[in-house]
Amino acid sequence: MSLITVDELTKVYKVRSRKKTPIEKGIFNSIKRFTKLRQYQNISAVNNISFTIDTGETVGFLGPNGAGKSTLVKMLAGILVPTSGSLKVNGVTPHRDRMNYAMNIGVVFGQRTTLWWDLPLSHSFDLLRVIYEITPQDYETTLRWLIELLELEPILDRPVRQLSLGQRMRAELAAALLHRPQVLFLDEPTIGLDIAVKQRIRTSLRELNREWGVTILLTTHDLRDIEEICQRLIVIDKGQLMYNGSLNHFREQFCGNRVIRVALTDRHIANRLVQDPPPEVTYTEQEGPWVTLYFDQAKTKAADVASWIMNKYIVMDLVVEEPSIEKTVTELYRSEMK
Ligand SMILES: Nc1ncnc2c1ncn2[C@@H]1O[C@H](COP(=O)(O)OP(=O)(O)OP(=O)(O)O)[C@@H](O)[C@H]1O
What we know:
By secondary structure, the chain is an alpha/beta fold. The protein folds into two domains: 4-11 and 52-252, Rossmann fold; 256-322, Alpha-Beta Plaits. The protein has helices at residues 22-25, 69-76, 98-102, 121-131, 136-149, 165-177, 195-212, 223-229, 247-254, 267-275, 302-312, 325-334, and strands spanning 4-19, 37-53, 58-62, 84-89, 105-109, 183-187, 215-220, 232-237, 240-246, 257-263, 281-287, 290-296, 317-321. The chain has a six-stranded mixed sheet with strand order 5-6-7-3-8-9, with helices on both faces. A four-stranded antiparallel sheet has the order 11-12-10-13. It has a three-stranded antiparallel sheet with strand order 2-1-4. Helix 7 (195-212) links the parallel strand 6 and strand 7. The chain is globular. It starts with a strand and ends with a helix. 31% of the residues are buried. Residues 13, 15, 43, 45, 63, 65-71, 219 line the site of adenosine-5'-triphosphate.
């Protein structure tokens, strides 16, 4: 049975907009505060989305700005109440049973903090132990493990307000995991972090999932997060589900072109290859002795293109590249897939 079941979930925000009256624009400006006409506008942030997630899965939500990712994850975390549709996590409707639900989930949303700003980090952890009613023995074991995993030892005595963004993110992650939740929700966990910290966070999340079997759901704009953490990709645009499946399947289905980059002996020879490329090559680019050849993987294999070139030329170097998921996602955002 699925751990998370989302069925025709919809969230509409009702926002107040102010209509300017002709009076306001004219000489009666002074009385405009008496003539403000309020009207409401509906913003459909999540629109009729359905999917299921199994225990232990790692799922990344991807989509352009304003797509509805955060709204969706906040509903899953019980922070927002859906407008319609149904949502169950382990049999519980998150927003209806928030207290019990909170005991089983961990949440890391960048703007919020679960830590006490003026206290040393270790004191925040101690307070969370009391709030989550963690036994001293479990607390000791889990905290030790998290300190090592997230490299927190050097910052344990520092007040939270003195921590850098990367240090705070690692601390937030530990705070969200102290009570060993079944599900972890993260909203853009690597945003604004340097490469080394991003890598530490990604490695830690992978390890957490492997060691504890924590189900991880995250929103991101960084495809590397998806590639390195997630088994499954859910793409959302304009509140609608555009893709739900594995990254490999996404590549196969939408990244039609593959790429071979080949270095020949000099740019003149390279230009000869550009003028007369192998069959089924749809596009070429040249930079000095390097030629990049794009071909449709449904029509020919990388090995056939490579051997065609090697039969005709002396090849100094040859690289077969994965289809560019970044490019495909950008194109996907631009086009309407439905
Ligand atoms: N509290 C709110 N009140 C009104 N509208 C909101 C609210 N929160 C989000 N929205 C609107 O809902 C839509 C979806 O926003 P959401 O933050 O879920 O998107 P997102 O995919 O997470 O975007 P981003 O990648 O930019 O963070 C947007 O049009 C946004 O303006």
